[in-house]
């Protein structure tokens, strides 16, 4: 079985799902290398389904559909890394809980169904905190709809890849991160919406450490790839 991240890492299991928790801020390239190694091991049947949970050092990641006008200017303040997931450009960094499920999908592959399960996980966490997150037709992720004529606000993002029947990349839930990072890009290619955090919606600081056990609580039910009812 492959090793987990080398330092500051905890590993546990929920049912048959292995959870790797990384402490501190993880450079994106390090986490991406780990994802690919875990993905290869899952494809080979060497490990069980695994979810990596962490906070990144500040970074912009550009999915395959990102256009030049959506990228930050030269003074981005953080590296911009092109990645092999779907979707467009987004930001990861301190105060945002990022999860990378490395899961074998059952055949026939239902990628849209998997996206909906990931969204549901974040929705359930939001509801645990008393935040009314919703889905928005035609847009992935978790949203706040203010109902006052203002723009929708994105609270959680989904961006993934499925290769050889095993998932990579995953989800990002804004807890108490600095929203100013999003001002430098057209986040997820959506120009008519904003971004938000659990802290902003609740009017108090909600840290990644506070949110983490709630995410873990929902992982087995929603990401263990049991048939949806």
From TrEMBL:
Reactions catalysed: octanoyl-[ACP] + L-lysyl-[protein] = N(6)-octanoyl-L-lysyl-[protein] + holo-[ACP] + H(+)
SUPFAM superfamilies per record: Class II aaRS and biotin synthetases (SSF55681)
Keyword Cytoplasm found: yes
Active-site residues, record numbering mapped to chain: 188 (acyl-thioester intermediate)
Pathway of action: Protein modification; protein lipoylation via endogenous pathway; protein N(6)-(lipoyl)lysine from octanoyl-[acyl-carrier-protein]: step 1/2
Enzyme Commission identifier(s): 2.3.1.181
Enzyme class: transferase
Keywords: Acyltransferase, Cytoplasm, Transferase
Something else known: In the reaction, the free carboxyl group of octanoic acid is attached via an amide linkage to the epsilon-amino group of a specific lysine residue of lipoyl domains of lipoate-dependent enzymes.
The name this protein goes by in its record: Octanoyltransferase
Lineage of the organism: Bacteria, Bacillati, Actinomycetota, Actinomycetes, Jiangellales
